[in-house]
Amino acid sequence: MAIEKKKELQVAALENGTAIDHIPPEQLFKVASLLELEKLNNPITIGNNLQSKKMGTKGVIKIADRFFREDEINRIALVAPNVVLNIIRDYEVSEKKRVHLPDQIIDIVKCNNPKCITNNEPMQSRFTVIDREKATIKCHYCERKINQKDIIIK
Fold first, then answer.
1. Which parts of the chain have pLDDT scores under 50?
2. N or C: which end of the chain has fewer CB within 10 A?
């Protein structure tokens, strides 16, 4: 007697909205926090430690009827630089893009240097990305380098 293995979707299908895929499991809740998902009234599905052929395990966030602006996408890239955004329309992926850090990050990150002018004057912070793979950034004003694990999001 053959045993049949039933395949099921681990996360519900989305009619319209955004699916954020391939989130490192340890970064999933940081991504959710950065996107301020707790403030949304949209249906949201969050899955963590799901099987992934590429990563072993991954996190996924699906938000119904929500599409993200560029600055929101940049926030995701700071903590999970290789996630994939899937734009879903009528249950089909209409657009797929891998998130990448931009060359400049403006007014998203707080400088770690307490003496930096951005921490002492009312002005926007500005960082240059110096290493995309390691997500290392450098303050435009005081030139302090900050590694991904030390980034403080405003």
1. 1-8
2. N
